[in-house]
Amino acid sequence: MKPTTDVARAAPLVDELLFPEAPRWRAGQLWFSDMIAKRVCTTDLNGTVATVAQFDEMPGGIGFLPDGTPLVVAMATARLLAIRDGCAAVYAELGDAARGHLDDMAVAIDGTAYVGAVGNMSADTEGTPPGGALVRVTPSGVVSRDADNLAFPNGAVLTDANTTLLVNETFGERITAFDIGEDGRLLNRRTWAALPGLHPDGLAVDELGAAWVGCYREEKFVRVLQGGRITDVITTAGRWATGAELGGPDGHTLFLLSADTDQRRFFNGDSRGRIDTVRVDTPAASP
């Protein structure tokens, strides 16, 4: 394993956020949800932040339809919202299939969305909330609950030319993989990497198939190979390590999203977040 890097040695990009999460690199910008601020933002590599849309509740995962329309998870009301001209409109209602709060999401190149339903969360939740699942929303708007008994599905990413879905099970301490069938259904569930003692949150995949993972409770980002071997560690002492994304013009920029908070403070809206960057050897995987 390479020497541990302290995030203080990384290049600061954006400060004065509340709780940045769900980063996606697209068309020269990093998209992310500033969850407690209830907004979706973009930033360029100069750290110039723009608010794309403001919401009445916390936004979660972000993805894009084939025509470029951004989709955003509305976490508390279990809906997908489409952002057009700075305004958000309901794209799909997931309530019956979700059975609680939503979190992260991945959107396939055909527009199929895979959304993590995490059960009901609060400041007093201990351990894993019941009801974790993956909900699929087809391009025609059909909603189905495709996978049950997931321990807080988080950090979803599509890999292998959209034939595999990786999802973190935060309280299962593992990354789980699914094959994607020709009809978009999730098949062949399996453990991609066991991460004992770690609580994986955000997830990004490089071109060698390794995953950068934010381990929020352990306050560090790790690069992990399929099977579970960790090759690199970046620590964020005193800060939750949440979202991770690879991007930049050449794909070699690793975006590190972190926040100074804890569970009770988070639900009370008390958090101070930022985004840092590190140059890495292996670039982002191709879409």
TrEMBL record:
Keywords recorded for this protein, A-Z: Metal-binding, Plasmid, Zinc
Residues that coordinate or bind a divalent metal cation: E21, N154, D201
GO molecular function ontology, one term from the record: gluconolactonase activity
Active site: D201 (proton donor/acceptor)
Names of required cofactors: Zn(2+)
Domain SMP-30/Gluconolactonase/LRE-like region intervals: 19-259
Pfam families: SGL
InterPro entries: 6-blade_b-propeller_TolB-like (IPR011042), SGL (IPR013658), SMP-30 (IPR005511)
Gene3D superfamilies: TolB, C-terminal domain (2.120.10.30)
GO BP terms: L-ascorbic acid biosynthetic process
Cofactor note: Binds 1 divalent metal cation per subunit.
Family the entry assigns: Belongs to the SMP-30/CGR1 family.
This protein's name: Gluconolaconase
